[in-house]
Amino acid sequence: MRPELEAAVKLAGELKGSHDPSGIVFTVLAAMSGMEREYIRDRTLGGHESARNRGKTIGGSGVTDESVPAMAFHLRDQELSLRDIAKRLVITTGAVRVGVA
Question: What is the DSSP string of 16-65?
Fold first, then answer.
């Protein structure tokens, strides 16, 4: 190999990307994984829509008892942490954060 080509190969590194045989494989796998992700997303959204049409709820249950937010505010006034409030009321810290903070 000519010295100037050797220097160029050292600077640029090996040939990567769509020109390299292994790069083509990775390109194809990346495209297939993107299509698979879209397929899973479409199926999931379709399942959610089907469940809603049948009257099912998606996600966690909401606060149904009106006394829970009032008790959370009361406990927060006593300077309890959100974790302690959640433990006492048997709810998640996210629900406490949304309702109190």
Answer: -STTSHHHHHHHHHHHHHHHHHHHHHHHHHHHHHHHHHTT---SPPPP--
